[in-house]
Amino acid sequence: MIAKCVNRTSGDHFGRLVRYIAAASDKGEKLDALWLAGCDAGDSDQDPAADPDLLDMAIREIEATQALNTRAKSNKTYHLILSFRNDRPDLAALKDIETQFAAALGFADHQRVVATHQNTDNFHMHVAFNKVHPVTLNCVTPFQDFKALEATCRAVEKQYGLSVDNGREDIVANRILDKALSPSARDFEAHRWEQSFERQVKALSSQLDTHLETANNWQDLHEGFAEQYLRLRLRGNGLLITGWSNRHRIKASTLGRQFSKPALEKHFGPFEAYKRKRQRPKPTQAAKPFAPRPLARDKRQNQLWARYLDQAAGSAATRRKDSLTRRAFSSWKAFLQAEAINDPLAPSSVFASFTSLWRFGALLVFVSQISVCILCASHGFALSRLSSLSLPFKSGALAGAIPVRKLVNWAI
Question: What is the side-by-side strand order in the sheet with 31-37?
């Protein structure tokens, strides 16, 4: 889930904000649920959407409380939005989630109006807080509220099993992980725009370290790896970490020296193969078997990704035979390059991928490829007749005109 504070630049209009998030006239279309908290006008069990007078009373009560504070020069209203990705908690859970965020921001005793909306792709909640305390009349402004919001998001996701969204700590961890990848894994991701097996295994390093610390013998360690859909296998003079299907593998020492064969044998004795029991250990709730995944997380690419997986699996119903470059869709990158001609969603997914890769040079090459392909498809030009055309660049090392023929060579 994602929590966001909406900065208000048009002044304090608490009543206008509440009437927007309430949207009582759109009941069943935009508005899902509406309730009050901390107000004398009504308790949390009453439905303001069913009684417009109750909502009006709450607005007048909160605006009167704000008017009693004559010292504060800043806005007296705090607008919080909570967005749920692929989740829709029940009303009791939503009220508890709102209470947790109010406490984290220091608004536990403050008046507020809460509404949930269902008119967008993601179910979301609006909370309009009165920053003026109803008793002390102090205007409370949370300091560095983004830290409290992020910490509460992670706690709520874990408590209710919600879909996890990346936060500041995750972004830093991903950057560290990018630097920790081996050259072969980085090359794989740069050429395919897909997550490597090494990335997915290293993302589980903390869990695997825990299993290593708690294991008493080789079998305990094997059980811990199996809970993450992984296996330890002997190969030559070293150890491999493989997926459950044994199709993907990396050296165990890639995770650190503590997972090298000499270090593990020093701790547990000579290597012992996994003595599989009748039933495989039950994987943890968060564990997932290795599967191809795009580097970028963007909901706009979900349909394209499903189509790519169908073609990669050799589905005769979805395989394209009239590709402009007449080549197999061997990777997510190649698929997006071909689809960019006909599907307007493909370029947006490409740029989302480059947000994570951040390689401007590769982006320039890709844009050039799309430009040449669209030019050929739109005007029926033969590639051999484009040598006289050129594209202008006005700044940087590329200043001047680049012959399209060079771009064609890049595309091919």
Answer: 2-6, 77-83, 124-130, 112-117, 31-37
Phi, psi of 135 (to 5 degrees): -105, -55
Cβ within 8 Å of residue 291, ≥6 positions away: none
pTM of the model: 0.54
Do residues 148 and 142 lie in contact, with contact meaning Cβ atoms separated by under 8 Å? yes
Domains of the chain, with CATH numbers?
Answer: 2-160 (3.30.930.30), 196-268 (no CATH), 299-411 (no CATH)
* Contact present, 108 and 134 (Cβ < 8 Å): no
Across-strand partners of 250?
241
Positive or negative CA dihedral for 361, 363, 365, 371?
negative
Summarize pLDDT for 301-354 with one digit per residue, the tens: 777 888 888 877 764 444 455 444 445 567 888 887 777 766 655 655 555 554
Phi, psi of 159 (to 5 degrees): -65, -40
Q: Is the dihedral of CA 305, 337, 347, 317 positive or negative?
A: negative
pLDDT tens sequence across 74-103: 889 999 999 998 889 999 999 999 999 999
For 209, what's the count of Cα atoms within 13 Å in the CB-facing half-sphere? 10
**Phi and psi of 384, rounded to 5°?**
-70, -15
Number of other CB atoms surrounding residue 88 within 10 Å: 13
**What's the token pair of residue 370?**
């799309």
**Token pair for residue 280?**
């495989």
The ranges of the chain with pLDDT < 70 are: 9-11, 24-29, 42-46, 49-50, 168-176, 276-288, 298-300, 314-329, 341-412
Structure token pair of residue 296: 């970028």
| Of 133, 118, 147, 6, the residue nearest 66 (C-alpha) | 133
Asked whether the CA dihedral 249, 254, 259, 262 is positive or negative, the reply is: positive
Q: Which residue has the tokens 């030009």?
A: 381
Residue 102: CB partners within 8 Å, gap ≥ 6? Answer: 37, 108, 110, 112, 127, 129
Give the Cα separation of 331 and 350 in Å (integer).
Answer: 13
